[in-house]
Amino acid sequence: MDDETNRDQGRLRVQKPTFRGSSVGWGIAAVVWLTSAVSVVVAMATDSRGVAVGHVLFLVALLLATAVCVTGTVATIRHPRPAPPAVDD
After folding, report:
1. For residues 6-32, b (16+ Cβ closer than 10 Å) or e, as one string?
2. Cβ–Cβ under 8 Å, residues 23 and 73
3. Cα(first)–Cα(last) distance of the chain, in Å?
4. What are phi and psi of 62, to 5 degrees?
5. Which of 27, 35, 73, 87 is most solvent-facing, going by the fewest CB within 10 Å?
6. Residue/partner pairs of 20-24 with CB below 8 Å, 24 or more apart
7. Do 33 and 62 form a contact (C-beta atoms < 8 A)?
8. What letter does residue 49 receive in the DSSP assignment?
């Protein structure tokens, strides 16, 4: 086992992106972005002037932020970060 660790030292390996933080924080952020997206959709629906390109782009950005936050919530629930090692004093 020591041979493998010495051989791999200094090499860069591709890893999956990790989402740090708490799943509660990611979930709250997802709810905030989703609520903002819903309010933009309601504003677009009630606006008598029609749908503007800026509103659509803003809606797409809000939905992307919501998707990232939902992914972060699921990722932190499924793969929590390990706790630091316990130390006896």
Report:
1. eeeeeeeeeeeeebeeebeebbebbee
2. yes
3. 30
4. -65, -40
5. 87
6. 20/76, 20/81, 21/72, 21/76, 22/76, 23/72, 23/73, 23/76, 23/77, 23/80
7. yes
8. T
Q: Which two tokens stand for residue 24?
A: 């509660």
What is the token pair recorded at 85? Answer: 């090692």
pTM of the model: 0.66
């939905």: which residue's tokens?
A: 63
Q: What is the mean pLDDT of each run of 10 residues along the chain (89 residues)?
A: 58 70 87 92 84 88 93 86 75
Cβ atoms of 40 and 58 closer than 8 Å: yes
